[in-house]
């Protein structure tokens, strides 16, 4: 075996991989892709359609039923057996369709969330889907990236990688291109980068050594092997419920058989009915329907620019009662324009409106103002086309005033730098004999001891400081984002930029709020959700913007958050609307304080350091455009357009999805309760009222089509007029139990009454009575479905799929009555008078359902 790549000089690794520093040709990459396959971690592999289908019959009860059916063939009742089998298979097909669609949606979800990588192909750096990487590819890594494959470093500047995902070590590791000794353990292989770890800072270039399952994480994934299925709390709750109900239903079903036997029903029929009752009434399909509904919702959300990365987030969204959002780019457009300059001691307006000669160039500026623009252009990592909006605004301003940016940068190359960070809030660059600094005014001011005036630098007296602070406040009150610029003569190196600066001046930029945001905030507030702005920007600017968006204006500064103990923060956190001048660590504390107050918090973030806040939030929301890969990977939801309004829509969707699941559970369980109650109570008198075939048929009609269609119920406007759901209460609350019990009881009483009325004292159930009760049941279910939807404010005719499903159920039911197959179902055609009677039952039950609904709703509030 050749020496492993971490021990070998990087050029030898390149040779071995038959690659070069400028990467592979796309031709070669394509060839290797065929040889090595996708750069993807296969988690136990998806389920095949066949295995999904077979899983539908993976239930003891189904086998008992089929065995009983087999028994009935032997007893000469072959028709029953065939019919039962057909219905069971049809039910299996419905289950299969649900499961298969859910599986598909989850898969496309994974594809959507796939990260990208920057790779050198044909000598050019391009962005590709990370799954397309092959061994030999040369990838470029930057702070905020997730390492896309295992690689040997060719080059590294300041590169640090957080490898906690792989090694458990949470302190970032410094990397370099120098080979390490033979036998170095994984955690110390500084010449390598590994798939799935996070670049926290610096830059690097690496040649890919392994991809996909061959990587170190691939290895771990293989060991864990099993499918890592994300289950949501709701699925767990319904699973539990299914089990509890299952036991109860089994007991009652088991009692039905002897009761029927005692009164002379034949043994086979009694057994079949008992088993069918269990099969029909045990809600084994609940979790699958939940998955399907969640998955459908996820698809709808991604069409609305909210990409869901973890399924439970959909549910959590519906319970969110506080949203903490960034300002820049999320509430505002993130398109900045420098509109005002201040240097000692004059303000000039430089936006387009002050374009005096109409040339498109802004007003003439003084030497000092020109220096301000020069610092803005040189102490700057962006270009006019690409980069940080704040920095681009400075470049545009310089450009508007006739500064030649490229020329300037070529003439005054950078010889040292202090990079910008949200914690530091400033950055500095050295250009041989001069240093430039730009950053948050109070920080720059703190590091300055002089100020540039008409007569050169002068001491920065307290008076002058106060004057500057007053200007900063003024800019802030006008909602301007303020940056300060300073310079320093002869800095030895970048470290000298931290003090002894000469303050040059201030720039003010406008960043208008996004159009839809004020409305979206109003909608979120109406929905009982508290919106808080958490921004790195200064107090005044933040407050001015908050005010213009209709947010409250109680402000707390990051510094104050830092000084408070947890308890004080907990006491105050709810009343604060704007957190200004915050760093990522403040976000985590704000989050914890809110959670300690029992809030469900959605929190946005974009930087590497936001990852802890995103992970710990109930719903972590990352920015798709501005965000780093690391932030995206830590999040539950990615906003493809960075827009606050998208969060609002996602919350609305989340609530609507929960509603749909709620409706489905209420519908299904109230029907099942009625089924069990009717069959059991009738059997007490020895009446066999809903025989096996009819029970299974009801199960097929009600669990099948309408259930599938319910998942597609549209969101109703009203979901955002309600307060958030209490997540601790789950889905089976008092309202749900009241509804299931109440509606189930109404149905039971009504149908037993119908039975007695149509029996007219007959000693055994007649085919006519059976037909009436059977048909009455199907129609009552359909009516009940619409009542339940109405209770959740769903407009009656808003779901065409459901209309089709209901129509199909009715047609199928009529077919069972009026075509020759009625022999096998034990039914006969009904005449007009019979329908009239069923109409009377419906007319009595409908208001009773509604009354129960209204009652339990009141009970719940
Ligand atoms: P938000 O948190 O809402 O996105 P923000 O962009 O102001 O707001 P940060 O990026 O953390 O938050 O920036 C904090 C402060 O640092 C800014 O208010 C500004 O004063 C200063 N700043 C921002 N970008 C730069 C930069 N590129 N160079 C120098 N200083 C900057």
Overview of the molecule:
The chain has 861 residues and is α/β, with parallel strands linked by helices. The chain folds into five domains: 5-43 and 114-226, Calcium-transporting ATPase, cytoplasmic transduction domain A (Distorted Sandwich); 50-108; 233-302 and 650-860, Calcium-transporting ATPase, transmembrane domain; 306-332 and 515-642, 3-Layer(aba) Sandwich (Rossmann fold); 337-510, Calcium-transporting ATPase, cytoplasmic domain N (3-Layer(aba) Sandwich), CATH 3.40.1110.10. It is 50% helix and 15% strand. It contains 31 helices and 24 strands. Strands 10, 11, 12, 13, 14, 15, 16, 17 and 18 form a nine-stranded mixed beta sheet that branches. α3 packs across α5 (78-112), α8 packs antiparallel against α10 and α28 (767-791) packs antiparallel against α29 (800-818). The structure holds adenosine-5'-triphosphate (ATP). Residues 326-328, 388, 390-391, 420, 422, 425-427, 438-440, 483, 535-537 line the site of adenosine-5'-triphosphate. Residues 4-77 form the Cation-transporting P-type ATPase N-terminal domain. Pfam families: Cation_ATPase, Cation_ATPase_C, Cation_ATPase_N, E1-E2_ATPase. The chain crosses the membrane at residues 52-75, 81-100, 664-688, 737-759, 765-788, 800-821, 833-856. It is a multi-pass membrane protein.
